Amino acid sequence: MQKNVFVINTLNTHYVMGVNDDGVLQHIHWGAKMPVDEYSVFNEWEHNSNHSELDYTKEEYSVFGGTRYRAAALKCIYADGCRDSVFTFKSVTRDEGLLEITLTDSEYDVDLVLSYAYGSDHDIITRSVTVVNNGNAAITLERVFSAELNLPSRSPYKVINTNGSWGAEFLTESNELNNGTVVYESKKGIAGHTHSPFVIMHRDATEDWGDVFFAALGYGGNFKIEVNRDFCNTTRCMLGISDFDFSYTLGAGEKFTAPKVYMGYTCGFTAMSNMMNDFAVDNILPKGYAKKHLPVLYNSWEATEFDVNTRDQLALARIAADIGCELFVMDDGWFGKRNNDRAGLGDWYVNTDKFPNGLGELIDGVNSLGMDFGLWFEPEMVQQDSDLYRARPEWTYHYDSRTPSLLRHQLVLNLTRDDVREYVFDCMDSMLSKYNIRYIKWDMNRPFSEIGTDNLENGKELWYRHTMAVYDIADRLHKKYPYLQLEACASGGGRAELGAMEHFDMVWTSDNTDPLDRLYIQRGYSMLYPRKCMRAWVTDAGGSCRCSDDFRFNTSMQGSLSIGSHLLKKDKKTLQGYKEYIARYKSVRDTIQFGDLYRLANYDCDGVFITQYVSKDKSQSVLFISTAPTSLFNKQDKEFVLKGLDPNADYECRYNDNTYRHSGRFLMNKWHKVTIGGALQSRIVVLNRV
Ligand code: DGJ
Fold first, then answer.
1. Which residue CA neighbors atom 10 of ligand 1 most closely?
2. pTM of the prediction?
3. Which of 61, 264, 376, 644 is least enclosed, having the fewest CB within 10 Å?
4. How many CB atoms neighbour CB 296 within 10 A?
């Protein structure tokens, strides 16, 4: 192998870079493994004076400067005003599972450390970039993306992201990129409900076949994903912190590390989803609960909204415990003067009109029923009608010359201030130290606006620093209370991404709990995010109210089953049904939360929705089949095959009161008919290895 070529060897792939004669770090290959001796750098040439050598080069990390007439991953301004960067190869180090390549701009003594963490049991490479200012003057970073990806130059790629909204998260969309640039980003302060901080690029891949290149950002603040196809048919993708209203001042001797990117190359979407699922469980989620299954929880929000008190919550808790819930979460409404969404945020002390003796009686009652207790907070927010705002109006993001814009009657606290961060931590800490609270649902219900701050010299840092402050508080809570489970919620799925999932144990995926809509939302989520983290409530909600409890439970069982229905309004028979569904979920929960997922059919293409989960040891498989809202589709005799089973083992299942026994080989090769007639029907089929 050439000495200036670096190969990252993962389970099934090679990722290869090399340094050319000019010291430029080139991207050489990402995909199937080849003999390493055959990789080499390629010295481009100036084709004519309008297209420079660098226009043609696939650079591993492009910087702004010289004759690059395309997007750059890094743009900085040096103290003397120079905005031209020249980074060339300086050194390389390789430790077990970690390759670090340092480039340097020697004129200004600034290094760029590109780091690649990898393993031999998966194909995910964790990338990050650190800018090290060894010089003696500050520099300003105007753009510092976490990674640049170069794809093989072939016919146009399809680029998958989401195009959703509140209540309609994770609706995946595909753009075929013939030329030019497609951009997905958030400018809201959180990742938000529309685009997702991930990208999937392929040509005509299916669930089982075709090259799939993907990357997900470990950051849930303002993000940007840019994919460009240029005049040479080269497709490049850059992703990282959005450069919208961003800059970061890096003082002499300081470093800045951009958020991580998890990227991979697989054959087909199923391999992508399962590999990312396992990688997140093993490497991203907070260690405390990553490998433990999550409890079935009850959440009070849809039943009681702000109208919470000890008597009613305990009445709900008694039924929740009886049907098999393991955790009871009291949502919004328990604090300050919180009787509706107009007041109270910021005052994180118990509302004594609703709970005259504090929360002790409720929490003891819940515990005595055998359930843990959890509580809702919205720590980043304050309302003008609150004691906190009356005392500390300057603690919000604001400009003195502007009237602050309210959304849901609330303002965003300036978490980049040390005193605000301490206040927020102390509020939760004092509740956690006083009561046996083992779960916090951390909500966030509005994007930022008027983002003025007087505590930072460079106000454009605040978007990034706010996100880091959220992560820092979550980490401190986990450290002080190792048993604590944290749920990240932002009006539903505004924070359902891998940045949050490095610091929170699970996410709330959507405020839309309609079980039919939810199948679409869950499908998009399942592309790159771990299914155990996806809280999925069974509720009474839904425009598609024709959905039976079978349908509702079979939808919610495909993640971390939770209940949000008004249990006090259910009759005995319904509750007995709930009890049986929850017991069934517990018997398959490990397969769903930790097994492999196969998306066998979906409404758009097949008129029926079928997903299959298979435990890692292939001893159990769980199949969910849900028919469409119209029975028209069901006339078409859909057929499907199972996947992922042990071909040499026999499996048994009960279906329609009969027991069936078949080999894995049969089940994976024989096309089975969907024999469920009628609209909005749903079945769960459990296969156990004999
Ligand atoms: C938005 C969340 O997504 C809901 O689940 C609920 O917690 C409400 N906020 C409470 O205000």
1. 332
2. 0.97
3. 644
4. 24
